[in-house]
Specification:
Order of helices and strands: HHHHH
Shape: elongated
Radius of gyration: 21 Å
Mean pLDDT: 79
Number of helices: 5
Largest sheet: none
Distance between the termini: 17 Å
Helix content: 55-70%
Number of strands: 0
Low-confidence stretches: none
Length: about 120
């Protein structure tokens, strides 16, 4: 989902503050503008879906990243097995099941994590 924000606010910053904002935004994995919008929403105690839409990205824990990478490999292996060697259907089915058992709990867990 892409949100269109209608207004532009020109703000002049010192080079030092600009660099600090850029570094903070990079640490959080978001754009400078999203970082500033989130700070403004927090400071004002305001909720705005369009302004927050490009805010903080959900963090994916390293162990979840590794598990998802393994699941994607399983999906790749299963696809190759199904397409190339019909006798490997059991291997493909097992790989698909492993991928499903990994992906589903992680993705469902994203909904429960604080942003």
């Amino acid at each position: 989902m892409r949100t269109t924000l209608a207004q532009v606010l020109g703000v002049k910053l010192s080079p030092d503050l600009r660099l600090q904002i850029a570094a903070a935004a990079q640490r959080e994995g978001i754009s400078d503008s999203a970082w500033l919008r989130q700070r403004a929403l927090d400071a004002l105690g305001t909720v705005s879906a369009p302004d927050a839409a490009s805010g903080r990205r959900p963090r994916v824990a390293p162990e979840d990243q590794a598990a998802l990478a393994g699941a994607v490999r399983d999906l790749g292996e299963a696809t190759v097995a199904l397409a190339a060697v019909p006798s490997r259907h059991a291997d493909a089915t097992a790989a698909l099941q492993r991928a499903r058992e990994t992906i589903v709990p992680i993705v469902i867990g994203f909904e429960r994590r604080p942003s």
